[in-house]
Amino acid sequence: MTMSAQLDREVAEKCEANKAIHAAWNELTKAWSLPVIHALGIREPARFNELKRRIDGISSTSLADRLTELERLQIIRRKVYPAAPPKVEYSLTDKGKDLLTVLGQFADWVNRWTEGERPTVKLEK
After folding, report:
1. Which H helix or E strand runs over 91?
2. Element at 87 (helix H, strand E)
3. What mean pLDDT value characterizes the chain?
4. What is the pTM of this model?
């Protein structure tokens, strides 16, 4: 195998390995996903309408869709309490809390590289 072919194969293998990272990024950057995670990170557990009040501009349909998707990804946990009417609370899983830490580091990066350009971003816990 030529040196060029070997390098091409190594690049292809690295691109293949990054597909999982790209897929995760695409899932997390869907509209409203990050604001939902952030809103739960502020205080949890939270009920549906409480989250809706925390996230300016989100519709009930969008919030329901994001909660369902984030639950499927095991980033949030949905707990139903048997009552009349049923009480449902949402909280971050360990995976979600770990992600919130990464998002905090991302907020630090944004602040470092946009200093003076916009207000400081603070990811609260």
Report:
1. strand 87-92
2. strand 87-92
3. 88
4. 0.79
